[in-house]
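ok, trying the design again with the full structure, not the truncated one.
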């Protein structure tokens, strides 16, 4: 029985072998994999765009984390 407290999904799940994400280099590999999946017909361009949006958000999170770590190191030097 579906959960009553959750809004209905607007799209279908996408199954895609995403490389492990750990740094900006892995984001590049993940984007490359999505592009290859579109080229081979395994993902639609829209699905790849959705994945790309998620990867972009993750990349921004990495940047923010790195920025905060840099500020903390600078504060420690004072």
């Amino acid at each position: 029985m579906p959960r009553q407290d959750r809004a209905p999904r607007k799209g279908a799940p996408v199954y895609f072998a995403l490389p492990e994400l750990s740094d900006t280099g892995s984001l590049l590999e993940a984007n490359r994999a999505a592009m290859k999946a579109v080229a081979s017909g395994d993902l639609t361009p829209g699905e790849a765009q959705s994945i790309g949006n998620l990867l972009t958000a993750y990349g921004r999170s990495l940047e923010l984390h790195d920025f905060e770590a840099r500020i903390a190191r600078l504060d420690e030097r004072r």
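Keeping the full-length input from now on. The chain has a mean pLDDT of 89.
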